[in-house]
Amino acid sequence: MSNRSWFFASQGQQQGPYPEAQLRQFIATGTVTAETLVWSEGMAGWQKAGEIPGLFSGGSGPPPISQAGGPLVSAGDHGGGPLSIDVGVWSLLGQSLLFVIGLVLVIPAPWTATGFYRWMVSRLHVPGRPNLGFTGEVGDIWYVFVVLGLCTYAGFSGYTSVQLILLLVEGFLSWMVVRWIAANLSSNGERLPIEFKGSVLGYVGWYLLMTISVITIIGWAWVTTAWMRWICRNIGGTHREVVFNATGWGVLWRTLLFGLACGFLIPIPWVLRWYTRWYVSQFALVERTAYANA
Q1: Closest CA to 241 of 177, 184, 198, 290
Q2: What crossing angle do the helices spanning 248-262 and 219-233 adopt, rounded to 10°?
Q3: C-alpha dist (Å) from residue 29 to 26, 76, 222, 241
Q4: pLDDT at 72
Q5: Which residues contact residue 170 at a Cβ distance below 8 angstroms, ignoring those fewer than 6 apart?
Q6: Given this model, what pLDDT does residue 54 score?
Q7: 149-155 LR contacts (CB < 8 Å, sep 24+)
Q8: Percent of the chain surpassing pLDDT 90
Q9: What is the pTM of this model?
Q10: DSSP 140
Q11: Taking the CB of residue 5, how many other CB atoms lie within 10 A of it?
Q12: Contact, 239 vs 279, CB < 8 A?
């Protein structure tokens, strides 16, 4: 069965195909359980994973144990690996358009933004964190999204001083959003003790540097990778470290290809999913001690 590709059902949607090795990783992390419906070529129809001979052979380790003050973890929770995301072509496009339209219309922004982040997080697969979720509510930082929506209009003023102030404001608001997202992640319904510890001055500094680097034509790609690594280093509350593995060249050519394809309009849904899946896969979890000794 090692060369087979598998599909599984999650939240009423078909996921896959995945090689069997990755399916077994989903089983180990609890994303796929014995009750999850799966299908592979040659099968007459969908079956529960636990009914497939050999799929659950050898067991998946001891049952989860509860850590004081933390979420449920299993004995295999100390592993690592890249993140992945399962998004449909049209569902991603639709959610992205709702997010943008919400900001443009300003008033719906808190609802569309919260819904977008909740949907995106639910599609993420994180090693050792089954059933990832987002617990943030519309009323938490609703004013942040309203102001961000208003900033899109103020940016057309044409005054350099106003645009500079807007950059500072947007950088600060973006920092608030990152902190909010990190503080509202959950696994199996349990809030994760994750927090973003990056300072507001550091974050706004990177935000400004990113904006300025655009004039270098290609330098922004290396600023992006450095900024993402700074963000990852400032994510705390877990025994594993988040790392960003993309290179400047990798970000550069993929972003340029994405922008070029979007210019033809029709490919947008497909290249949007391609780019999103690649970008997410560049984030990975590693043991802090192992990473330090690497």
Answers
A1: 290
A2: 120
A3: 5, 8, 33, 18
A4: 38
A5: 148, 151, 207
A6: 77
A7: 149/102, 149/103, 149/104, 149/105, 149/106, 149/109, 150/106, 152/103, 152/104
A8: 59
A9: 0.74
A10: T
A11: 14
A12: no
How crowded is the C-beta side of 99, counted as CA atoms within 13 Å? Answer: 14
Span 1-60 CATH architecture: 2-Layer Sandwich (3.30)
- In terms of Cα–Cα distance, which of 134, 147, 81 is closest to 287? 81
- For 158-190, the pLDDT digits (tens) are 777 888 899 999 999 999 999 999 999 998 888
Residue type, 165: I
Q: From residue 254, give the alpha-carbon distance in Å to each of 4, 41, 128, 210, 250.
A: 29, 32, 29, 17, 6
User: Tokens 């993402």 appear where?
Assistant: 228
Residue 289 is predicted with a pLDDT of 57
Q: Are 95 and 119 in contact (CB under 8 A)?
A: yes
DSSP assignment of 23-87, as one string? HHHHHHHTSS-TTSEEEETT-SS-EEGGGSTTTTTT---SPPEEPTTS-EE-TTTT--EE-EE--
Q: Which pair of structure tokens corresponds to residue 176?
A: 């608030």
β pairing state of 235-236 and 195-196: antiparallel
More confident residue, 208 or 293: 208
Phi, psi of 31 (to 5 degrees): -65, -40
DSSP label at residue 126: B
Q: Is 146 helix (H, G, I), strand (E, B) or coil?
A: helix
pLDDT at site 216: 92
Four-residue CA torsion sign, 119, 120, 123, 127: negative
Break the chain into its structural domains and give their ranges. Answer: 1-60, 61-293
